[in-house]
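in:
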C-alpha cells in the first residue's frame, strides 16, 4: 500500500525511527503505519544510505525512453504534415526516410501518430468503429413559427395485414404544429425528399431543420455529416441542427409527440396499412386543431402556426464569392480540376461546389458556406483559370 497524502515525509521519518529500534518488529511497524513490508524496507534502506534526505520523493522519469525522438524529427514531421494534411503516419514515415532519417532516429508509425496528435495536427479516433460526425455549438432556439422544424421517424410497428408502418413526422418547434405524419415503406433519400418537397411547397421553407444523427438525415462519413437529403436542404438556404448522439431529450417535444402517438395509435394497430394512414391523418388533425397544449398557454398548434414567407419557388442558387472556381460533382462524387479527378463525397452528387485557391497547387473545396476538404493538384493550375477579381461568379 502507498503512504497517505498528508505529511508523507513526516510519516516516513516517524516510521524509520520506530522501525530502527532493536526491540521493534519491522513487520509490526509496517502494519502499524499501514504499508507493505516491501515499502517499509525500501525506506529503511534509503534512510540508512542518505539519512532524512533519502525519504524525499524521487523523480519517476525513466532514465531512457525508447520512444523519444529528436527535435529535428518533430520539426520535419510537422512541416511534412502541413504540406500533406491528409497523409497518414505510413506515408509521412516514408517521407522522413527520404529526408535522411534512418535507424533509431526514424520513429515508428504509432510514434508519428502520437506526435501529430500532440501537435494538434490529428484527431483521436475510436477503435473498431467509424468516427461519427458530432454537432458543434448550441441548438437553435425557436422564436416564432418556421424558425426551427424538427424531423424524425417514429419507431415502426406492423398493421394487422403484416405490413410495416413507420411514420415520418415533420413538426414546427415553436407552434408544435405537425406538418406531416406519413407512414413510409423505406427510409431512402429519394422517398423522404419527395415528402419534403410536398411540405415545402405547401408550408414554405424553415430557417433550421433539427434531426438526430441517423439516416437519411445525417451520415457517418459525409463531410459535416451531410447526406444527399441534408445537402439539398443546404442548397435551399436551410441550416442544419443535429442533436448529440444518444441524447433524444434535446428533441424532447418531438419525442413527447411520439410517445402520445405510440399510446393512441401504435398500441391499437389497424387491420391494413391504408387504414393506418387514415388514422394517422385523423390523429394529426386532432393534434393540430383540437388538442390544447400547456406550452402554448392551452392554445392549439393550429391557432399559433403560420406558413413561412420563404417559398420554395423563390429559392435562388447559392452564390460563391468572386474568384472561386465552380465545379459540379458528378454522379460518382468526383470533380475534375486540371484534368485530374478528385473524390469529394457521395452526399454532394449533382451539386455545385466552389474552389478557393490557397496557393499554386492547393485548393479548398466549399459547399455553400461549409468547408468540405482541401485538395492538391500535381501541377500548378494556370492563374487565368481563376475568375478575375472584378468578375461576378
Amino acid at each position: 500500500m502507498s503512504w497517505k497524502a498528508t505529511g508523507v515525509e513526516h510519516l516516513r521519518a516517524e516510521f524509520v525511527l520506530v522501525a530502527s529500534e532493536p526491540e521493534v518488529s519491522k513487520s509490526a511497524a509496517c502494519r502499524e503505519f499501514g504499508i507493505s513490508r516491501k515499502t517499509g524496507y525500501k525506506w529503511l534502506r534509503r534512510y540508512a544510505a542518505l539519512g532524512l534526505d533519502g525519504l524525499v520523493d524521487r523523480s519517476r522519469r525513466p532514465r531512457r525512453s525508447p520512444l523519444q525522438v529528436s527535435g529535428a524529427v518533430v520539426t520535419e514531421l510537422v512541416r511534412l504534415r502541413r504540406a500533406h494534411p491528409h497523409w497518414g503516419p505510413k506515408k509521412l514515415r516514408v517521407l522522413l526516410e527520404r529526408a535522411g532519417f534512418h535507424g533509431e532516429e526514424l520513429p515508428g508509425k504509432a510514434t508519428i501518430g502520437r506526435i501529430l496528435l500532440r501537435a494538434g495536427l490529428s484527431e483521436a479516433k475510436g477503435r473498431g468503429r467509424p468516427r461519427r460526425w458530432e454537432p458543434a455549438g448550441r441548438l437553435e432556439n425557436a422564436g416564432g413559427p418556421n424558425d426551427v422544424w424538427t424531423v424524425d421517424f417514429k419507431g415502426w410497428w406492423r398493421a394487422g395485414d403484416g405490413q410495416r408502418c413507420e411514420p415520418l413526422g415533420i413538426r414546427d418547434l415553436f407552434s408544435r404544429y405537425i406538418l406531416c405524419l406519413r407512414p413510409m415503406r423505406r427510409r431512402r433519400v429519394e422517398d423522404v425528399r419527395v415528402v419534403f418537397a410536398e411540405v415545402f411547397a405547401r408550408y414554405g421553407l424553415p430557417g433550421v431543420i433539427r434531426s438526430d444523427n441517423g439516416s437519411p438525415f445525417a451520415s457517418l462519413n459525409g463531410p459535416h455529416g451531410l447526406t444527399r437529403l441534408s445537402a439539398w436542404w443546404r442548397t435551399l438556404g436551410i441550416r442544419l441542427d443535429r442533436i448529440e448522439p444518444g441524447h433524444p431529450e434535446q428533441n424532447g417535444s418531438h419525442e413527447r409527440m411520439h410517445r402520445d402517438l405510440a399510446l393512441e395509435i401504435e398500441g391499437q394497430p389497424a387491420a391494413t396499412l391504408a387504414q393506418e394512414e387514415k388514422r394517422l391523418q385523423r390523429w394529426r388533425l386532432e393534434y393540430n386543431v383540437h388538442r390544447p397544449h400547456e406550452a402554448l398557454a392551452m392554445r392549439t398548434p393550429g391557432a399559433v402556426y403560420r406558413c413561412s414567407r420563404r417559398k420554395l419557388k423563390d429559392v435562388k442558387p447559392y452564390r460563391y464569392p468572386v474568384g472561386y472556381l465552380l465545379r459540379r460533382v458528378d454522379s460518382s462524387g468526383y470533380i475534375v480540376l486540371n484534368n485530374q479527378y478528385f473524390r469529394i463525397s457521395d452526399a454532394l452528387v449533382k451539386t455545385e461546389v466552389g474552389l478557393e485557391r490557397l496557393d499554386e497547387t492547393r485548393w479548398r473545396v466549399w459547399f455553400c458556406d461549409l468547408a468540405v476538404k482541401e485538395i492538391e493538384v500535381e501541377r500548378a493550375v494556370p492563374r487565368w483559370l481563376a475568375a478575375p477579381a472584378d468578375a461576378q461568379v
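note: The chain is about 30% helix and 15% strand.
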